[in-house]
UniProtKB/TrEMBL annotation:
Record keyword Membrane present: yes
Organism of provenance: Nocardioides soli
Region (Disordered): 1-23
Protein name, per record: Uncharacterized protein
TM helices/strands, residue ranges: 32-49, 61-82, 94-118, 130-148, 169-197
UniProt KW keywords: Membrane, Transmembrane, Transmembrane helix
Amino acid sequence: MTLEQTPAPARSDVRRPAAASTGPTRPFFKRGILLSIGAVAWGTDSLIFGTDPSGSFEEALSSITSGTFQLGLLGLLSVLYATRALGAGRLARFFLRFEVALLLLAIGSTIADGIGVSDLDQAGWAMLDAFWPLSMLGMFFIGIRVAVAGRWHGKERFWPLIAESWGPIVVPTFGIFGSTVAGVVSFVHLCLGYGVLGQIVARKEG
């Protein structure tokens, strides 16, 4: 007697288990790209019109480009928070939240300038405008802290300090040499500083 074993036909209604998801390898890509775009856009605007725009068109264009840059900074702060780049303590988290508050007020000033409602001769508007340089000064101290904390490595550790030295470099340049020279310095610094930092963030794997 011959015995034959015929394999059972494959069932079409049984699905193979899906491969386990490992998550995005570059979770901060979009935020990094936004930072680079904003930095180059605002830098280009500064190169063409200087750092002290005049007229409604120049003011509106400056507000659009600088506002894009500020949104990129918010993205950068969220990455610093997520990766605990300043440290894991409460003080580090508080300082990042405080910087976000400064930056949001600076964005409010940018919007007010862009739509032409601000008046720097009035104390309230002048105080709001002051949050622009204050927020950039805060970013400088954040860059120092990232370098000191050492939780980011390689060029990730020190490039934030290079990028965030914009305020201490460009603001005195404006005071000494005027808007045109400061615009050139701002363009170079933004492209080499925040523009490159955005690419570093975009390629960061977590």
